[in-house]
Amino acid sequence: MRRRMSSNAEACLASSAAKDAVREMDCLERKSLVVWRRPLKTLQYSILELFGMLIGLGSRLLNRRFLGSLLALVIIYKLPGPHASYMEMGRQNLGFIVYWMGLGLLSSVGFGTGLHTFLLYLGPHLAAVTLAAYECHSLDFPAPPYPDQKICPKEPYIRKMPNIWQILSKVRTETMFWGVGTALGELPPYFMARAARLSGKSLQQEEGPPEKSRRLTLFDKSKLIVERVVLRIGFFGILLCASVPNPLFDLAGVACGHFLVPFWKFFVATLIGKAVFKSNIQQLIVIVAFSEDLIGVLVKALGQVPFIGSKIQAPLHNLLTTTKQRMHHKMSENKQESDAAYTGFGIVTHLFQLLALFIAFYFVVSVLNALAQKRCKRLQLEKLEKDELAAKAEKNDSPKATHRGLPIIEEETIEEINA
Q1: Whole-number mean pLDDT of the chain?
Q2: What separation, in Å, do the N-terminal and C-terminal C-alpha atoms of the chain show?
Q3: Domain that includes residue 357, residue range
Q4: 10 Å Cβ neighbour count for 167?
Q5: Per the CB 3.0–4.6 Å rule, which of 45, 200, 255, 314 could disulfide with 372?
Q6: Pairwise CA distance, residues 288 & 295, whole Å
Q7: pLDDT at 332 over 50
Q8: Does residue 389 form part of some domain?
Q9: DSSP3 helix / strand / coil % (the chain, rounded to 5)
Q10: Number of structural domains, the chain?
Q11: pLDDT tens digit string along 163-212?
């Protein structure tokens, strides 16, 4: 009897080791699905996963409640009444709201590999408004062309140097909608982890078996700190992690979803942190950095850099001068100075365009990798479920097994025990 019990224990250990090995192989296979290693397989899986997601989204949009709400909104918009002026105002501002919210969504979606739209769009917009405010001594920029172009009002106009808080108020709307978009971009990790937990899967199944002997890196320690802060402090922990520039906040969403933190508790804390605190902190940093005094100090400090300081200082000074003149609808009378300014401006523009293309390319590649790995994981889970069902069916068909999978004690074994 003891021999049989020991053999059963050895069989269980062997089965557990085999499952860990299979899980590790599946994890390695998912990680190998990247564009630079397996391009054809990655493209195939990503396209199929994208089509599946679009089909699922289309089926959800055909829901009766959504179609009924959309029809009611169209009827209210078409009906005459005192609300017509507000509806028209909302229609005119809809593009502005969708634009900045969409940029915020792209910035945070994708598990840390999102498109850095603050660096590409919102940051330059804030910097241009700050420079124009200090140059024009006014915030009453004519619209249009504002916000596409920041130019001074036509003379004569009242000149009054705006302070930092007035500049913050000028660009607060677009910054807030950008922050709302970043908060919406944090929802996919939360819902994915929550669905995995409710379906009975743990986070360890996605990352492979734990390695107890492996030392924790700085990144792993940072992940553990974020998870502990979120889970121990609760609402204020989520608010704290969302209120500061934190590239690991996706892990906070995963932790909240895995431990079934209520949706409104997670989303409200994230929304307040992203749209109110974090966006205003970033906005304030850019406005202070591009104030007139700091820009002048920066240009003078660049001139003191040995060897290359004077070569960088002259184009930058000409660029700032030409930009200020364009705000007043003026151009430089000295043609050489104007050409040098445009040359410097062209170099800066080309460098910025190259940076934008690189970031956009990295974002597209990251999305393709994520979609391919997601489909691979789905196929692996389906195969694992089929194997488990087949193993259960085979065990049930075995004549020497009960309905619980326990071995039947034969008559010879009972006689041996009695002897």
Answers
A1: 75
A2: 13
A3: 292-395
A4: 24
A5: 45
A6: 10
A7: no
A8: yes
A9: 75, 0, 25
A10: 1
A11: 888 888 888 989 999 999 988 888 888 887 787 777 655 444 544 444 44
